[in-house]
Amino acid sequence: MENLSFEFGPFPPGPLRSEPVIVGVVGSGNMEALCEPTPLGGRMKIVVNTSVRGFGATWEAVLGDFAQRVRVPDLLVTINDAGATPAVVGLRLAQAAAELEAS
User: Fold this and answer.
1) Single pTM value for the model
2) What gap in Å lies between CA 38 and CA 54, rounded to an integer?
3) How many other C-beta atoms are found inside a 10 Å radius of the C-beta of residue 52?
4) What pLDDT score was predicted for residue 77?
5) In the chain, alpha helices (H)
6) Under a CB-based contact definition with an 8 Å cutoff, are residues 51 and 83 in contact?
7) Burial (CB count within 10 angstroms: exposed 0-12, middle 13-18, buried 19+), residue 36
8) What is d(CA 69, CA 9) in angstroms, rounded to the nearest whole number?
9) Which are the contacts of 31, defined by CB distance < 8 A and separation ≥ 6?
10) Hey, CA dihedral for 33, 36, 37, 43, is it positive or negative?
11) Which GO cellular component term is one of those annotated (predicted)?
12) How high does pLDDT run on average in the chain?
């Protein structure tokens, strides 16, 4: 198990969000992402718990792109990864972004 942590931003204030968003499931080849509004000084913090070691630079690039696209301030994202492929990671992050916009 490898635990990674990244911070992005700060981002300008946006609509207030109070409800957490969860997408995906923890299962082989899949991942779960929990997005929680949290005071972080306008930053987005993403914590990754993954069963696959050695891909920190890849995670940082993918998550940095996600953070720049959604630009949600004060958000804690916790990812529980069970060996998701890059396509699944992209799908789950797109789902999370859609849920955040709808909330």
Assistant:
1) 0.91
2) 28
3) 13
4) 95
5) 56-70, 86-102
6) yes
7) middle
8) 11
9) 24, 79, 80, 81, 82, 84, 88, 89, 92
10) negative
11) cytoplasm
12) 92
Model confidence pLDDT, tens digit, residues 14-58:
877 789 999 999 989 999 999 999 999 999 999 999 999 999 999
CA 93 vs CA 20, 30, 85: distances in Å: 14, 12, 12
The 3-state DSSP class for residue 82 equals coil
DSSP letter assigned to residue 103: -
| CA separation for the pair 78, 44 (Å, rounded) | 11
Structure tokens that stand for 94 in this block = 């797109």
Q: How many CB atoms lie within 10 A of CB 73?
A: 18
CA distances 76 to 26, 51, 67, 85, 87, Å, are 18, 20, 11, 22, 22
DSSP β-bridge partners for residue 45: 7, 76
87 falls in which pLDDT band (50, 70, 90)?
confident
Tokens standing for residue 76:
């804690």
